[in-house]
Amino acid sequence: MNVLTVALAERSYPILIGPGLLEDAALLSRHVPAGDVLLVSNTTVAPLYAGRLKQGLGDRRIVEAILPDGESYKTMDTFTRLLDVPMANRLARDCVVVALGGGVVGDMAGFAAACYQRGVTFVQVPTTLLAQVDSSVGGKTGVNHPGGKNMIGAFHQPVAVIADTDTLSTLPPRELRAGLAEVIKYGLIHDAAFFDWLEVNIDHLLAGNAAALTHAIRRSCEIKAAIVGRDERESGERALLNLGHTFGHAIESAAGYGTWLHGEAVGAGMLMAAGMSRELGNLSDADLARVRALLHRANLPLSAPGISPSTALEYMKMDKKVQSGRIRLVLMKRIGQAYVTPDYPAAALQATLEAYFG
Fold it and tell me: Catalytic annotation on 262?
């Protein structure tokens, strides 16, 4: 088992990565610190893994909230129905919310934990690659709004992230590819050597090689944990983790939630960010070609046909990084070095939108 730490003073917590963690009763006893558990999962994951987790949790009162599966259900309506469960079962403030699933489950369960009785304990048990490398770490929770993705939510840190790598064996190939987009992101924003490693090992990752996946998860979590530890609430450096997300969220919102997987939209968005970086003269032709080639080898989308540039721009204006009417973008100077800026020619953004949308 790999053990990392998100360093947030008295709110620091571990990220545990390895096989067989769902059934590890001793580990769960240490990191799920309550007798009453609200187990939040969905209709796809619960039949596969809820039984194992409940067995590992042992003799506790476990109340289940099973959500419909998919980004299209990440709504205030579903959230309200989720909160009905602890209310109906009279769960007290000393309960713990356990999120068993991917990013949607984790975001909604975390938001419920942040809101129920003004905040209860929360544990992430991510079962998708995307959730294990990204969304389960850092405390961002929330739901979507028709006007924009993740516009309603809260920062609410878990007390532990328990990433059982065995759950990836049942992950559909499309979901695996979507998770790889977030893995590639870490190389692009922070670690050129990790990007080099991904170029060599992308086929092993796509094939589900356990050793390769474990290394990718660990390195991704190391990078995110360090950044979150320095900038928990995204006042500065943490915004780098949004490389590709402003373009990607526009794709998801414009296409309709659930049409694109989040990682697919981020993959296309990262190429758009790289393309705009090249348009501005910051990124070399060679680096842009490497970004495109790796995303292509990962079988991720490289453009967003069917969405007009003007529609994409309207959704980008709703992004959470907009300040004083300016869309702040995460762009690149080179592979391994990204930056956040509101300062770029409007013509460069328009040229990028026209190159990749439509």
Answer: yes
Tell me, yes or no, if 314 is annotated catalytic. no
- Whether 140 is catalytic is yes
DSSP code per residue over 269-305: HHHHHHHHHHHTT-S-HHHHHHHHHHHHHTT----BT
CATH 1.20.1090.10 correct for 174-356: yes
Q: What is the pLDDT of residues 236-250, one digit of tens each?
A: 999 999 999 999 999
Of residues 238, 278, 320, 328, which has the active-site annotation? Answer: 238
CATH number of 2-170: 3.40.50.1970
Active site residue 279: no
Does this model's pTM top 0.85? My answer is yes
Sequence-separated (6 or more) residues with CB below 8 Å from residue 146: none
What is the CA angle 81-86-91, rounded to 5?
A: 170
List where CATH 3.40.50.1970 sits in the chain. Answer: 2-170
**Bridge partners of residue 331, in order along the sequence:** 339
- Round the CA-based radius of gyration of the chain to a whole number and report it: 20
Is residue 249 among the annotated active site residues? yes
Q: How far apart are CA 145 and CA 336, in angstroms?
A: 33
Exactly one of 31, 42, 71, 140 is catalytic; which is it? Answer: 140
CB 182 within 8 A of CB 137: no
Question: Residues 177, 185, 190, 249: which is the catalytic one?
Answer: 249
Residues 324-353: pLDDT tens digits?
A: 789 999 999 999 999 999 999 999 999 999
Instruction: Give me the amino acid identity at 55.
Output: Q
Q: Say if residues 164 and 91 touch (Cβ distance below 8 Å).
A: no
CA distance 318 to 271: 21
What is the H or E stretch that residue 15 is in? strand 13-18
d(CA 159, CA 34): 12
Catalytic: which of 182, 222, 232, 252? 182
CATH 1.20.1090.10 boundaries in the chain: 174-356
Residue 133, token pair as written in the block: 């490398």
Q: In sequence order, what are the residues at sequence separation of 6 or more whose Cβ sits closer than 8 angstroms to the Cβ of residue 96?
A: 32, 33, 34, 36, 37, 38, 120, 121, 122, 123, 159
Paired with 154 in beta bridges are 141
